[in-house]
């Protein structure tokens, strides 16, 4: 089991390439924890943003003008501002004015920590895009199909959940795919509020060991693999949802 | 024919680098400007005055170097996590940016000896927390600045959880918000913060400083002339007591190191 650390130590001594993560257990643990945190952020923000997208797209067609306006306002606000600014705004801005509890010393103790804020901010950011992506799918569902569902006695909500959304999802999956890949990569911004995800861990390591180039390589390969896994899952999903003859 | 052209091309590409490394001081004099990387968020060593200009002990030191060279001074604000890259990429001629002396750093930049300063690591803590010893911080989140060399050592030695941000404003803000129990940073910086009424009311520095480390100026590897010039300048600062005077000017307690070096060099003849 010591072959790998020994090899990387030897590599450092002979070539100067210093991959500390592969021989220093402390750095390795930080890196693995970082990857784990990236996965947690990705999975939770994907699920939350899909929910926001689906609900938002439904409400975009709501009879109430106020609801429609609110959804459009949300989309414009979160799509037109940079995600890093949003993260800072939530963590440093809103976090500071929300009520907070007290710890054993009587010091301020926020209820929502940096990881929660990162998940909230990123979900809303990606959710705004998902609303529009789902809308594009809904608009592609033939009017006649919706009418047929109504004729069968479906309520508006039931028709949306059982007929429109499943068909719309098939159409918008490629676009959704892109957005979710983007979301995975955007989780790196959480480093700015000290969420210990992969970029944060790697940045700590390279500023201590001065091995920027080597850690950059590790970073690229890590995200290459993570995105590869996500794309593979999405393609499997696309395939399994495929209806022969539909959507051509 | 083709080979000689490639050689010529290569020579053309490489020449500027060779020239820069060979005569650093001359190049700066020719340019008429000395470009120095300093901190802009590190009171009193480098911070912005109300007009936005970068001032402090290190900008003063940089200005003195420029004066000795007879050139104008350009200050480039850097942070801990990018300063070495700035120097390596030639964006700055030299660094005076609260950089501690570490073997890994000496491998990638040319350190200037003797170190111009030396400082401990300490923690800015809320008075309410009532912490009296490092051991009480075990398992607690401590705000920190990413890129500080001691983050890892503090985490390993005292079992604290480091929550690191870029720069020093964000960790301070996070501390105020209660996202961590204290802010671990250079002792002089903590002292500098406690000069502000904003912090001196509710915060304190009750712990004993640890991990005493010298601070080095740095130039790019191979810049021998600038290295030599700065080494002489540093010795002269110690001899004249310039650094001790600067500490007093900005209201911090002169460190044992700067007092000691002044005493030692004062009587030196060179």
TrEMBL record, chain A:
Membrane topology type: Multi-pass membrane protein
Keywords: Amino-acid transport, Cell membrane, Membrane, Transmembrane, Transmembrane helix, Transport
Keyword Transport in annotation: yes
The ABC transmembrane type-1 domain, residue ranges: 35-231
Cell location: Cell inner membrane; Cell membrane
Segments passing through the bilayer: 37-59, 71-97, 117-138, 215-234
Principal location: membrane
Xref: Pfam families: BPD_transp_1 (PF00528)
CDD domains: TM_PBP2
Highest taxon listed in the record's lineage: Bacteria
Cellular component, GO annotation: ATP-binding cassette (ABC) transporter complex
One MF term in the entry's GO annotations: transmembrane transporter activity
InterPro entries: AA_ABC_transptr_permease_3TM, ArtM/GltK/GlnP/TcyL/YhdX-like, MetI-like, MetI-like_sf
PANTHER family: GLUTAMINE TRANSPORT SYSTEM PERMEASE PROTEIN GLNP, MEMBRANE COMPONENT OF AMINO ACID ABC TRANSPORTER
Similarity annotation: Belongs to the binding-protein-dependent transport system permease family. HisMQ subfamily.
Full protein name: Polar amino acid ABC transporter, inner membrane subunit
From TrEMBL, chain B:
Coiled-coil residues: none
Pfam families, sorted: SBP_bac_3 (PF00497)
Taxonomic source organism: Ancylobacter novellus (strain ATCC 8093 / DSM 506 / JCM 20403 / CCM 1077 / IAM 12100 / NBRC 12443 / NCIMB 10456)
Protein known as: Extracellular solute-binding protein family 3
Annotated Solute-binding protein family 3/N-terminal domain residues: 33-254
Signal peptide: 1-21
Keywords linked to the UniProt accession: Signal, Transport
GO terms, biological process: amino acid transport
One GO cellular component term noted in the UniProt record for this chain: outer membrane-bounded periplasmic space
UniProt keyword Ribosomal protein present: no
Record InterPro entries: Bact_solute-bind_prot3, Solute-binding_3/MltF_N
Keyword Signal set for record: yes
Family classification: Belongs to the bacterial solute-binding protein 3 family.
